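ok so for the tutorial part 2 we go from a plain amino acid sequence to predicted structure tokens. step 1 is just haveing the sequence, like this:
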Amino acid sequence: MSALDIIIVSFNAANDLDRCLLSLHAHPPSGPHEVIVVDNASSDTNVVSVFKKWPKVRVVPLLDNVGFAEGCNVGFAHTKALLVLLLNPDTVVPEGALDRLVDALMSDDECAVAGPRLVDGAGSVELSWGPMLGPFNQIKQKLFTWLYSHGFPPVSSLIRNRATQVHFPDWVSGACLLVRRVDAEAVGFFDKRFFMYIEDVDFCAAIRSRKRRILFTPASEVQHIRGQSVATVPKATALAYRQSQLAFYDKHHPFWAPLLRSYLRFCQRI
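step 2 — the prediction. this is what the tokens look like for a chain of 270 residues:
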């Protein structure tokens, strides 16, 4: 049995996936591990390329695009390791990053999930953690993200400083998320209502409801390049975000859900 299973859910991201697998091949975790690629019915060369170039990678081809959350669940069903890493195809893993992430999680028995510092292609820190999603926290998070993306010095300094510190946020990004299998099983894995986006926030909320902690560790750094599958269909991905946002509010904030739905309809966003 492997000590770590790595699940990559991919959709029409052949180039990104190849780069990710190349980085895993060059900088693998030191212990026994297995890589499982769940292909969401891609129409590109995704599956064929992996079979040809990466014969040791296990590929699970799906007949339909079931979304990221359910794709992760399919991946979980093909794993047995005590630790499972969810990794986006548009990530690049540097040397030692996965070992440091595993060490950070295993050093704290109260933590069920660990996320690394994510940086973009230019090395800038990504805001890959945050508070529980809600009307006011969401406004704050969006404002921070906008100010950070526009180089507002106080916010940029705050986020960069926070990214150098170990802390325990409400969620970490599903782009690179390490979880203890026992905790993932205890919450029933991912809620498949979240086709794409916010499934990581919901998953971490379920983990925290069992009095388990979410860890952000700067000891591990992973590059997140933001891949081609999102860039090619911006309208569809924006709609998917809104649908996941509504599903989250229906589940966690039922009082606010009708107000959000009315607002989105008024703005013609759904």
